[in-house]
């Protein structure tokens, strides 16, 4: 009988520990984090706009396709500012009327300043970005034997959802902004890259 109060006390402590674990995890995500750097591997969807073009009277259309990207970000101690560079690839098929399609093998890179709630503040992060972009097509939209480069701007909006103290799910929308002539006049292009990936911070 003398052990009964001890057993009851031990059981009570166990229940409190189990019940408090989720709360402790929540508090961990809310605390400021010392991890200032993050590497993200992502994949998703490439959606071009102003997709029409023309080559010697033959209509051209740029098609949506898959995309992959790697991103490297750094966050300031204040928890509201950061910077990010990224690189990615998309096959970007171009339909040539009724004569099939070809790939441009698009490579894109960006450099952006970030503002918003960064991972340094803990919890869910929401960040908007603005900066520069470079798009390199190994096979030009108009001439598949020629490489072309386009410089422009870049805008982004992203959400980072922590999984644990070092790993997070990242959801991003990027707008690659540039001017290009694909046979029907120079037009402003807003090609979108929508990705989901895992960010690893340290």
Helix-strand blueprint:
Elements: H1 4-30, E1 37-47, E2 52-55, E3 58-62, E4 65-75, E5 81-90, E6 93-96, E7 101-103, E8 106-117, E9 125-137, E10 148-162, E11 167-181, E12 186-201
Antiparallel strand pairs: 1-4, 1-12, 2-3, 3-6, 4-5, 5-8, 6-7, 8-9, 9-10, 10-11, 11-12
Describe this structure in words.
This protein is mainly β. The protein has 1 helix and 12 strands. It folds into 2 domains: 1-30; 32-201, Porin.
CATH class of the largest domain reads Mainly Beta
The structural domain count equals 2
What's the CATH topology label of the largest domain? Answer: Porin
Overall 3D geometry?
elongated
Number of helices: 1
CATH architecture of the largest domain: Beta Barrel
In short, what is this structure?
The chain has about 200 residues and is mostly beta strands.
Quick tags:
202 residues, mainly beta, 2 domains, 8-stranded antiparallel β-barrel, elongated
């Amino acid at each position: 009988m003398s052990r009964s109060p001890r057993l009851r006390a031990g059981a009570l402590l166990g229940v409190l520990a189990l019940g408090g674990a989720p709360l402790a995890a929540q508090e961990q995500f809310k605390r400021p984090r010392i991890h200032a750097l993050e590497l993200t591997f992502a994949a998703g969807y490439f959606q071009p706009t102003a997709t029409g073009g023309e080559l010697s009277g033959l209509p051209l259309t740029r098609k949506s396709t898959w995309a992959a990207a790697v991103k490297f970000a750094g966050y300031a101690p204040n928890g509201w500012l950061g910077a990010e560079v990224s690189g990615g690839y998309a096959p970007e098929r171009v339909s040539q009327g009724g004569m099939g399609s070809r790939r441009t093998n698009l490579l894109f890179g960006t450099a952006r300043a970030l503002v918003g709630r960064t991972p340094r503040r803990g919890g869910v992060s929401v960040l908007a970005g603005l900066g520069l972009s470079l798009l390199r097509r190994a096979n030009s939209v108009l001439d598949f034997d020629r490489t072309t480069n386009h410089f422009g701007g870049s805008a982004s909006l992203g959400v980072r959802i922590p999984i644990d103290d070092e790993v997070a799910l990242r959801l991003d929308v990027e707008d690659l902004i540039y001017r290009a002539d694909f046979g029907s006049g120079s037009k402003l292009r807003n090609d979108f890259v929508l990705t989901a990936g895992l960010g690893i911070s340290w």
